Amino acid sequence: GQQVMQIPQYQHVQEGEDFTTYCNSSTTLSNIQWYKQRPGGHPVFLIQLVKSGEVKKQKRLTFQFGEAKKNSSLHITATQTTDVGTYFCAGILNQFYFGTGTSLTVIP
Amino acid sequence: DAGITQSPRHKVTETGTPVTLRCHQTENHRYMYWYRQDPGHGLRLIHYSYGVKDTDKGEVSDGYSVSRSKTEDFLLTLESATSSQTSVYFCAISELGGNTGELFFGEGSRLTVL
Q1: CATH classification at residue B18
Q2: Considering only residues 73 to 102 of chain B, which have any Cβ-Cβ distance to chain A shorter than 8 Å?
Q3: Which chain B residues contact residue A95 at CB under 8 A?
Q4: Of A91, A93, A69, A87, residue with least CA distance to A13
Q5: How many domains is chain B built from?
Q6: Nearest CA in chain A to B2
Q7: Residue B64 is part of which domain span?
Q8: Which of B40, B42, B107 sits opposite A88 (nearest CB)?
């Protein structure tokens, strides 16, 4: 069946360091979405990527969708303590297929 | 935040008892979903609905049933709860479903089965 793998599962960074999480799908996706879940909270939509090779930025966050629409990445520049949480990708192919998430810890 | 309410927010029950979780939305969105979240597994789809009385299974549907008699309510029932169903359950809604719509999640319901 459809699978979306996400790595790493955990990441600890010093405040100010960069952070990247990667998603890979076994099949070509229609779109990919990214969500953030703060500790004890619920997932919140961040962004959707639709086009092959698309790159979108939200302040310090950069999202990329691969040329083959099978992989995606989220990069955070100069992490802050407010970035703490779990980041999920969701591959979309008539249904939402969530990655296992990357839990980010930022050490002040 | 989207108008999604889950109830109960916390429940402790014993093995073998029935449990029903309720998701109520005020957004009039067509699609509703039930996910469970467990460490190391991320969010796994249990069941979803694409309209009143229209439901379908997700990847982890065994032991769960759902009903949607009204647009605004989506019920998840565990007929006979087991310890493996201890989890955090999230309801989500979407206007457009698995095409371009984003998911809006409820606050979650934490279920412990002893």
Answers
A1: 2.60.40.10
A2: 90, 98-100, 102
A3: 45, 98
A4: A87
A5: 1
A6: A44
A7: 4-113
A8: B42
Nearest by Cα to B76 from B31, B23, B37, B21: B21
Quick one: average pLDDT of B47-55? 94
Count Cβ neighbours within 10 Å for each residue of B32-71 and write b for 16 or more, e otherwise.
Answer: bbbbbbeeeebbbbbbbbeeeeebeebebbeebebebeee
Contacts of B46 in chain A (CB under 8 A): none
Tens digits of residue pLDDT in A8-28? 999 999 999 999 999 999 999
**In this structure, are residues B37 and B88 in contact, taking their beta carbons and an 8 Å threshold?**
yes
Which residue ranges form the domains of chain A, and what is each CATH number?
4-107 (2.60.40.10)
Which among B40, B103, B104 has CB closest to A96? Answer: B103
Among B40, B59, B90, the residue with its CB nearest the CB of A42 is: B90
